[in-house]
Amino acid sequence: MSAVLDRDDHVEHDHHSHAPTGWRRWVYATNHKDIGTLYMCFSLTMLMIGGVLALLIRAELFQPGLQLVNPELFNQLTTMHGIIMVFGAIMPGFVGFANWMIPLQIGASDMAFARMNNFSFWLMVPAAVMLVSSFFMPGGAPAAGWTLYAPLTLQMGPSMDAGIFAMHLLGASSIMGSINIIVTVLNMRAPGMTLMKMPMFSWTWLITAYLLIAVMPVLAGAITMTLTDRHFGTSFFNPAGGGDPVMYQHIFWFFGHPEVYIMILPAFGIISQIVPAFARKKLFGYASMVYATSSIAILSFIVWGHHMFSTGMPVTGQLFFMYATMLVAVPTAVKIFNWVATMWRGSMTFETPMLFAVGFIFVFTMGGFTGLILAMAPIDIQVQDTYYVVAHFHYVLVAGSLFAMFAGYYYWSPKWTGVMYNETRGKIHFWWSLIAFNVTFFPMHFLGLAGMPRRYADYPMQFADFNAVASVGAFFFGFAQVFFLLFIVTPTMMGKGQKAPQRPWEGAEGLEWEVPSPAPFHTFETPPKLDATATKVIA
């Protein structure tokens, strides 16, 4: 009997100590770390594809006249650039961070539904293939803008149907991922880790997951109605049959505005982890950060109409959406002030993660201020659909979501890969990105105020200088990300570099720093015993 027990123990030990190898490890991945890595690689790939489309747009706009593409292809590029960046790069990137970090931060052994986690990732691959291949379909890619407004969507070729199907798949993937995150956070926290002791990154993702479950079905409804208008004789958005194109905008933006916060709340979480670590202080106002995040999520449902001030909305509606939008600035400002207060009189050092975090705060705040300006209905009606709007949302999303992801990568990659990135190269990447970003997008504010409309392939001579500056900046920004991929990500992924200690950052706190670097395949198989702060494991 004892021999049988010994053999069983040995089998059990073998099962836990060895990770699967080869292609099966990735195709059938159920480990949260592997799935997180898959999401990250997918996100980086889509970022590069979306970036190539952006550079084609900026190359066309380098000078007046038509250089490279005709206006129809230009609109296909702007449409697919937006869809690929939002649904293919930013959202999956943050889900990758969630998969990697949430179980490590809350002391869980894995995500709650491991196989559903695998399925939610692999749903995205055919969706991405459909989006990218739409350029090669009859009539080319959809050219209705990333918002897919009717009646343009009713006039597109078959690629529009492929785009609708792809977005359904991506939406289903998001909903499954969100269910997984919610159940993991609510059910699998280590004993002693109450919700109000949970790291801010896990908190922001819990709130984001609820947002996703609330709004992804709304997008699914809008694009399904578009599909039936196209093929099944309905007239939801077709005025000839009694439909209303403006109704599409209401439905889309009821999804679309919370979506903006879906892409920024996880970024707030990452910054809330990094700033205290490099200031060597506790996060200032932890409880107020949690309440501010929740407030942003709730308010995001009542501000969608600010995208529609120029549609003939009654003055009462304009006033409501104007004031509601201005109200969102309050909890957002709470976060900014808390980060600054955390840094105040801290023992700060400026390694690359902290540089990107401070860069994020600076540039995101600029984007927030232009958002506040666009919230004013009289101003918004003037600059509606101009490059001022393009400048605003790129300041929020590129400098917001993307810079936060870079900060998170530099902060946590030693734990993922077991090696330290090259600090000098990291700083080059930061300064190169920050300067090139501002050279690209800051002039767009002036273009918008001067009246240059977006989504136009050609423009009058008066806009030539700022467009030339923006295009040069865009290529420099693009090359900065190629530098990041080739000289920072690739070497660390291949294990080249100085071996990372268990806790590479002096001020970092949290359970993720209690496991070795690189994090072993299985972590926290028995729930850890936590100290009173729920940030350390008691041996």
UniProtKB/TrEMBL annotation:
Pathway in which this enzyme or protein is active: Energy metabolism; oxidative phosphorylation
Enzyme Commission numbers on file: 7.1.1.9
Gene3D superfamilies with a match to the protein in the record: Cytochrome c oxidase-like, subunit I domain
Topology of this chain in the membrane: Multi-pass membrane protein
Top-level class of the enzyme under EC nomenclature: translocase
Catalysed reactions listed for this entry: 4 Fe(II)-[cytochrome c] + O2 + 8 H(+)(in) = 4 Fe(III)-[cytochrome c] + 2 H2O + 4 H(+)(out)
Domain of life: Bacteria
Transmembrane portions of the chain: 38-59, 79-100, 121-144, 164-188, 200-227, 247-271, 283-307, 319-341, 353-377, 389-410, 430-448, 468-489
Residue span, Cytochrome oxidase subunit I profile domain: 26-531
Subcellular compartments: Cell membrane; Membrane
GO MF terms, alphabetically ordered: cytochrome-c oxidase activity; heme binding; metal ion binding; oxidoreductase activity
GO biological process terms on file: electron transport coupled proton transport; oxidative phosphorylation; respiratory electron transport chain
Keywords, alphabetical: Cell membrane, Copper, Electron transport, Heme, Iron, Membrane, Metal-binding, Oxidoreductase, Respiratory chain, Translocase, Transmembrane, Transmembrane helix, Transport
GO cellular component: plasma membrane; respiratory chain complex IV
Function: Cytochrome c oxidase is the component of the respiratory chain that catalyzes the reduction of oxygen to water. Subunits 1-3 form the functional core of the enzyme complex. CO I is the catalytic subunit of the enzyme. Electrons originating in cytochrome c are transferred via the copper A center of subunit 2 and heme A of subunit 1 to the bimetallic center formed by heme A3 and copper B.
NCBIfam families documented for this protein: CtaD_CoxA
Family: Belongs to the heme-copper respiratory oxidase family.
Protein name: Cytochrome c oxidase subunit 1
